[in-house]
């Protein structure tokens, strides 16, 4: 996400002109998150999307009950009341199907004045200057190269971040990194004993 220099258009109430370069054409169809916490819903509320996300997505947003974390001996390590309202009025946890949320956000962004979205465009290099950055982008459909200058570059490009690799941002690890796996399951039959 870049602020274009010298542009008079604005993003919502912020008054910032933005161009987005996205490598993919379509929303990534596999969920990378299973839900969001109450504080994140405040961000969606500010955009006017919270109610749509809670009530309006096709796969449904679920509010879980109390989550029980147990060890292999079935001893309870933690009871977390995930479905209770938090201090900001939203529930502590909402479970969702992320591609549906991504579609809602994309539709919102597409409707904003002052935001240019370029799908199938891959950022190749970012060169940070004293007051701006130069970004080199490849159009994956035509193989054409585009360069632009921006006051700010925000790298929302995941674990293999081009922006971070360019030295534009430093990350501080607050804890040891751990490997983990997400398993999505679909029940073939109803199971009475399966807790929420």
Task: Give the tags.
4 helices; elongated; alpha+beta; disordered N terminus; six-stranded mixed sheet; 196 residues
What does this structure look like?
- By secondary structure, the chain is of the alpha+beta class.
- The chain has a 6-stranded mixed β-sheet, with no helix packed on it. Strands 3-6 form a two-stranded antiparallel sheet.
- The radius of gyration is 21 Å and the shape is elongated.
Structure summary:
It is built from 4 helices and 10 strands, in the order E-E-E-H-H-E-E-E-H-E-E-E-E-H.
Outline the secondary-structure elements:
Elements: E1 2-4, E2 18-22, E3 35-37, H1 38-47, H2 50-55, E4 67-70, E5 76-80, E6 93-95, H3 98-110, E7 115-119, E8 121-128, E9 133-139, E10 145-153, H4 162-165
Parallel strand pairs: 2-7
Antiparallel strand pairs: 1-2, 1-10, 3-6, 4-5, 8-9, 9-10
Let me know the number of strands.
Answer: 10
Low-confidence stretches: 1-10
| Number of H- or I-type helical stretches | 4
The main sheet comes to: 6 strands, mixed
Q: Helix amount, in percent?
A: 10-25%
The ordered H/E elements are: EEEHHEEEHEEEEH
Shape: elongated
Look at the structure and give the mean pLDDT.
83
Strand ordering within the main sheet: 7-2-1-10-9-8
Taking the alpha carbons of the first and last residues, their distance comes to: 38 Å
* Structural class computed from helices and strand pairing: alpha+beta
* % residues in beta strands: 25-35%
Radius of gyration: 21 Å
């Amino acid at each position: 996400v870049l602020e274009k220099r010298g542009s008079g258009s604005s993003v919502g109430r912020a008054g910032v002109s933005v161009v987005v370069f996205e490598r993919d054409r379509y929303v990534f169809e596999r969920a990378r998150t299973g839900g969001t916490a109450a504080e994140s819903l405040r961000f969606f509320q500010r955009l006017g999307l919270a109610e749509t996300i809670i009530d309006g997505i096709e796969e449904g947003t679920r509010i879980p009950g109390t989550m029980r974390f147990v060890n292999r001996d079935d001893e309870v390590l933690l009871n977390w009341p995930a479905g209770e309202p938090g201090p900001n009025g939203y529930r502590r946890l909402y479970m969702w199907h992320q591609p549906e949320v991504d579609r809602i956000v994309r539709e919102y962004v597409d409707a904003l004045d002052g935001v240019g979205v370029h799908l199938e465009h891959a950022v190749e290099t970012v060169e940070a200057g004293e007051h701006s950055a130069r970004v080199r982008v490849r159009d994956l459909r035509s193989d054409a190269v585009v360069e632009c200058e921006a006051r700010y570059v925000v790298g929302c490009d995941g674990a293999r971040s081009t922006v971070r690799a360019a030295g534009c941002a430093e990350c501080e690890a607050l804890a040891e990194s751990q490997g983990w796996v997400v398993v999505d399951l679909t029940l073939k039959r109803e199971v009475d004993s399966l807790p929420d």
